[in-house]
Amino acid sequence: MSVETIPTGLTVGTWTLDNSHSQIGFTVRHAGISKVRGEFTEASGTAVVGEDLNSSSVQATIKAASFDSGDANRDGHVRGEDFFDVEQFPELSFTSTGISGSGETYQLTGDLTIRGITKPVTFDTEFNGVAVDPFGNTRAGFSAQTVISRKEFGLTWNAALEAGGVLVGDKVTIGIEAEFTAA
Q1: Of 98, 93, 84, 7, residue with least CA distance to 45
Q2: Bridge partners (DSSP) listed for residue 29
Q3: Is the pLDDT reported for residue 1 higher than 80?
Q4: How far apart are CA 168 and CA 129, in angstroms?
Q5: What are the Lipid/polyisoprenoid-binding YceI-like domain coordinates in residue numbering (predicted)?
Q6: Does the domain spanning 13-182 belong to CATH 1.10.10.10?
Q7: Are 74 and 82 contacting, i.e. CB atoms less than 8 angstroms apart?
Q8: What string of DSSP letters covers 153-173?
Q9: For residues 45 and 178, what is the distance between their CA atoms, to the nearest angstrom?
Q10: Do 119 and 146 contact (CB within 8 A), yes or no?
Q11: H or E element: which one contains 73?
Q12: What is the 3-state secondary structure (H, E, C) of 92-123?
C-alpha cells in the first residue's frame, strides 16, 4: 500500500471547522421540474492531519434543526417526523474511514449518519489551499460533493403528482464549502 502525502501547506495537527466561513448545502429535485436548494447552518467538526493521508481523518456533526431552505413552512415539515425528525434524531454526522488522492483532488470516504442510519459515502473533494488571515489564523479551504439516495437514510416521505412522478426526488446532492483553522 502506498503512503499518500498530505496537501502542500497543511501542517500536522488538529484543524477546527470554522462554521461562520463554511456552508453545508444540498440540492434535491422538486416535482420533477426544478431543484430546491438549502443548507444546514450549525455544524462543528475537526480535521486531524497526520504525517500522511492514511493517518489523517475528518469528523463532523450537523444540527438537524438548523435545516434552512428559505421557506419556513417547508423547513418545519422537513424538520418534522416525515423527514429529519429532529426531536428523535437531533444530529447528522460524518466520520471518515479513508482519504486518497493528491495535489488538489481527493476522495474522502466515510460513514454518514442521518436519522440513525449509517451508510458509507465518498465525497469528491478539492483542496483549495492554505492562507493566514489578517488576525494571524492559519486557514485551509476545501470543497466537497457527493450524491446520496435519501430513501437509504429513511427519508421516504413523498406525494404522488397528478401527471405522474413524485413531489420530492430521491437523489440529493450534498455540497460543502469548508474552512478549517489550525489549532
Answers
A1: 93
A2: 35
A3: no
A4: 36
A5: 14-181
A6: no
A7: no
A8: GT-----B-TTSSBSEEEEEE
A9: 10
A10: no
A11: helix 72-79
A12: EEEEEEEEEEECCEEEEEEEEEECCEEEEEEE
Residue with cell 430521491: 170
Alpha-carbon span 160 to 173, nearest angstrom: 22
By three-state DSSP, how is residue 59 classified?
A: strand
Nearest Cα neighbor of 43 from 75, 68, 9, 71 is: 68
Of 78, 83, 87, 81, the closest CA to residue 156 belongs to: 83
In the chain, where the domains are located: 13-182
Give dist(CA 61, CA 91) in Å, integer: 6
75 vs 158, more confident: 75
Q: Would you give the DSSP letter of residue 80? A: S
Query: pLDDT, tens digit, for every residue of 28-74?
Result: 989 888 899 999 999 999 999 999 999 999 999 999 999 999 999 99
DSSP 8-state secondary structure symbol assigned to residue 81: T
Report the relative pairing of strands 168-182 and 23-30 from DSSP bridges: antiparallel
d(CA 9, CA 12): 10
Model pLDDT for residues 98-157, shown as the tens digit of each residue: 999 988 999 999 999 999 999 999 999 999 999 999 999 999 999 999 999 999 999 888
